[in-house]
């Protein structure tokens, strides 16, 4: 990590994978309001998302719906080698334990507020760029 990455936080690239158009549009709106995010792709399902990553495409943060008809988000992310920081977006709270086991950045239950969205993005950013460890000089 370079010093300028700490002084000036870099733009985080992101993608959306959700089968519902209204949910994709809502996330696109929230991303548009967030100066630290740059949307790379908005995809309609798990298979399309898996193809995106299979082609070697990368993002820093992935907003991923859990319940999708073709391939659900939990199954999809398990198939992605070295997945990005994932923020699950779902209408169901029941997937919380599986999300926890996958070590995702956050879990947004729809509908969510922009404030809650910002918290999730902040958590993902902190996981991507943790504070540099402080070296203590214990010599006297």
TrEMBL record:
Presence of keyword Disulfide bond: no
Domain of life: Bacteria
Positions carrying 4-aspartylphosphate: 65
Biological processes per GO annotation: regulation of DNA-templated transcription
UniProt entry keywords in alphabetical sequence: DNA-binding, Phosphoprotein
Coiled-coil portions: none
GO MF annotations in UniProt: phosphorelay response regulator activity; transcription cis-regulatory region binding
UniProt GO cellular component terms: cytosol; protein-DNA complex
InterPro entries hit by this protein: CheY-like_superfamily, Sig_transdc_resp-reg_receiver, WalR-like
Domain Response regulatory per the UniProt entry, residue ranges: 13-125
DNA-binding as UniProt keyword: yes
Name of the featured protein: Response regulator receiver protein
Organism phylogeny: Bacteria, Pseudomonadati, Bacteroidota, Cytophagia, Cytophagales
